[in-house]
Amino acid sequence: MKKDFTPTLLDFGSVQIYLARHFGFCYGVENAIEIAFKTIDENPGKRIFLLSEMIHNPKVNADLTERGILFLQDTNGKQVIPFEELNEQDIVVIPAFGTTLDIEKKLRAIGISIEKYNTTCPFVEKVWNRSEQIAKKNYTVVVHGKPTHEETRATFSHAAANTATVVVNDMEDAIRLSKYITGEKPLPEFYDEFKGRYSEHFDAETDLQRIGVVNQTTMLASDTQAIADFLKTVMVSTYNLTEENTEERFAETRDTLCYATNDNQSAVYGLLQEPADFAIVVGGYNSSNTSHLVELCEEKLPTYFINDADKIISDSAIKHFDFHHKQELISNDYLPKKDPVKILITSGASCPDALVEEVIKKLVSFFKQASSVEKIAKQFA
Ligand code: SF4
C-alpha cells in the first residue's frame, strides 16, 4: 500500500509549522527504553550497567543515569568502566544497536547473561541475518556504515564471524575499494587504506572477487543504493558479466535500512515539497539517522539541527549543531520578518516526541498574534 508522506500543517496564523508525517521514536528505541526502565524496577539493589549509550539521545541517557544506571563504554567504544570491575551478580543491558561477539564473549566469561537484558533491535538482527545468508554463498560482505558507530561495529563483528568483511563509510570509500577490484591499485595498499576496517585474514586478492552490500540501518537510503549500484557496475565491467550471470560476483541485496529510517527519510522528502523559510531537525548530535535527515533538508533550505528546545535562545538567536564540523554554532536572525513564517520540523528515531512539542511551543511563543498550541492541538484530538 502506498504510504502517505504529506506533512501535517499546524497553522498558528502568523507562523505555520509543517510537521513530517513520520518522525521521532522508532520501535527499537521504545523497546530498548522500556526494557531498561523495567530492568531498574525489577532489580532493586543490583548494579545495572549499560554497555554504552542506550540510544543517541542525551535526555533519555540522563534519565537512565539519574536512576542509577552506569555506562561501561562511551559511544566510540572507549571503556569507561573496565570489564574487570564486573561480577556475575551484575546486570548488563545490551543497547538497541547490539554489540560485538567479542564483548558478548567477555560478558559470558564473567558469568553475566547477555540474553535476558538484550535490547538489540530486530531490524539490526535482520542485517546480521542478511550478512549470514551472503556469507553462506561465499560472498564477502561490504558494510556501508560509519566505521566507529556501535551498530556498524556490531554488524561487522557478526559478519566477520562468517565471511571476509570490509566497511565503507561513503561513496569515496567505495571508489577506493573498487580500485582493488579492478586491479588499478596494488593490492598491498589495501591493508593501509582500509586499516581497522577489514576482517582478520582478509585477502584483498581473493576476497574482493564476490561481494554483497549490507548497510547500517540508519544510513541514507540513496547513498547505500548508489554505493551498491556502483560496486555492481564495477564487478560487471571487471568480469564482463551479463544480466544473467551478475549474481556470480555480486549478491543482489535490497538495502537493509529499517522501516523507521525509511519512513522518516521518505517523510522528509514529503516535507520538502512545502515551500518554507527554514527547517528544524531535533535529535541527538551523535545520532546517525538524525544527521541524515539534516543532510536532506540542508540541500533545500537553511536547516538548524538542535537537541533541545533550549537551543532556541530567543526570537533572534538559535544555537545549533554543524555535524559536518562537529561543533555548535549560534545563528542570528533566523526568524524572517514576514507573515506567515513557514517552518518545517522533523526529528530522529531516538528523539522523544515531547522534545518536538517543546520546540513547537517555544517557536510559537515568539509570535504574539499566533493561535495557542492548545487550540491547534484540539483540532487533532
Ligand atoms: S532506527 Fe531502526 S534499527 Fe535502529 S533501533 Fe530504531 S527501529 Fe531499530
Protein model, in words:
Helix 6 packs parallel to helix 8 (221-238) and helix 9 (259-271) packs parallel to helix 10 (288-298). It is built from twelve helices and 14 strands. 37% of the residues lie in helices and 16% in strands. It has 381 residues and is of the alpha/beta class. The strands form four sheets. The chain has a five-stranded mixed beta sheet, with helices on both faces. A four-stranded parallel beta sheet has the order 7-6-8-9, with helices on both faces. It has a three-stranded parallel beta sheet with strand order 4-3-5, covered by helices on one side. Bound molecules: iron/sulfur cluster. Residues 26-29, 96, 121, 123-124, 217-218, 258, 260-261, 289, 349 line the site of iron/sulfur cluster.
